[in-house]
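Write out the 3D structure for:
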Amino acid sequence: MTIDSDRKPTTLRWAVRLLRAEAAALGLVAVWLVWADLTATTTDLPSALLVTAFALGGAVALWALGGALDRHRAGARAPAIVLQLMLLPVGWYMIQGGLGWLGVPLMALGLGVSALLVSPPTTRALGLS
């Protein structure tokens, strides 16, 4: 009898770690947005609350997808890839706005996690091959 020691390949482990790290970072942005909403002197309250809710929802979604992938739920792969590919236009507009130091790493992160999620070891571990 042999034991499959590669039940959770390195590519899947790193994808989960990076998704969880993104969730934590976006959660910190959401906390900052809540603070900014509460301390702003003038604001368009509905827009501010919508942006804050979007950040909170994104953090929850990334964390949940990381957990689902950690439990080998194949259905979580496609939404996770979509969220990663959404970093490409965000990064592009950051570069256009003079924040290349942040936009380039965001684009690389999105492409890198997407590559981890479609790699053959991850595909096999999720039972998609």
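The chain has a mean pLDDT of 94.
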